[in-house]
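Sample intake — Acetylornithine aminotransferase
Collected from: Marinomonas aquimarina
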Amino acid sequence: MTEQVTRATFDEVMAPNYAPAAMIPVRGEGSRVWDQEGKEYIDFAGGIAVTALGHSHPTLVETMREQAGKLWHLSNVMTNEPALRLAKKLTEKTFADRVFFANSGGEANEAAFKLARRYAFDHFGPEKNEIISFYQSFHGRTLFTVSVGGQPKYTEGFAPVPGGITHCEYNDIDALKALISDKTCAVVMEPIQGEGGIIPAAPEFAKQVRALCDEHKALLVFDEVQSGVGRTGTLYAYEQTGVTPDILTTAKSLGNGFPVAAMLATEEVAKSLAVGTHGSTYGGNPLAAAIAEAVIDIVDTPEVLEGVNKRHQLFVDELTAINDKYHVFKDIRGMGLLMGAEVTDELAGHAKDFLAHAADEGLFVLVAGPNVVRFAPSLIIPEADIKEGFERFERAVAKTVADLKK
């Protein structure tokens, strides 16, 4: 007999690092989710840009069942067919020549940052070890990745943190010029900052970052954990910048919710990840790799990628119409189906209020910091769900405005 659990069970048995909603989802199909009470929600959050193909996608369910009946796990003293097929497809579809598999975006970034330092060590010596990243960036929750991330609140209380890391303003090339030197081993950036407020890199800025890295013999690392796998309308967002990184990390949508991640690199750089320098017990296991391969096969098609751009415009149009009526946002921005609506100065700090009222109305949305409402739905969300979802969101906006006038 299955034991009955409720939201109160969380407070009894779970570590208090999360503050989950009162409802507990139990079932999902496409872009709809149902909770324990049978209430239906439309999903504009996508598990934080993860469920790129929605919930319970039939092809992914069948792929998982088929692979589960063959092999789940092997040690990394041997390889497996799904991992090799997935790695081959990722290298064929991107700039990369080599792949390292992990289980999460944080792990992929940990590998990327270690590789950047190891490459510099191998080619230039131990003094070339400094990493530059950008304020408001987010790269994971390990001590290394949270230190590279540009949000001090995530390192508070965990000192001493790894050294040799500096930060500068995003989209400010002069700030980077002032920091970068021949001691820099890597510049780490998101082509569109996610947790930092859904801020795309200006194309000219990205090109100048690449040029500075080349000038100082530093590697360019693109964190595409959130922006990758079709999220921005191309398989990876770097394709839209005119810039090719040396290392790229990908996770989230890669497994549609199944834990899988990858670090992609050029052959020259990947050579420094020699035998014994890094590893992962579960990374590249056949079950995860089979699911990720199926995701790539579905997403990297004209139908899906062109559909992302069409849906982007639908989101812009709906958000603009709501804003014309309620005047709550000062900016609507983003790429593809990674979008943010920044609240007006009068509503500063109240983005979470929109999230709470949206949930009451049967809609999942996200925030990106205290001032931005974030949207990261399935890449194949039906247009009817978009329309109905925004009807619910408008009611949430109306409630938020009414509450703040009290």
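Post-analysis note: The first helix runs from residue 7 to 13.
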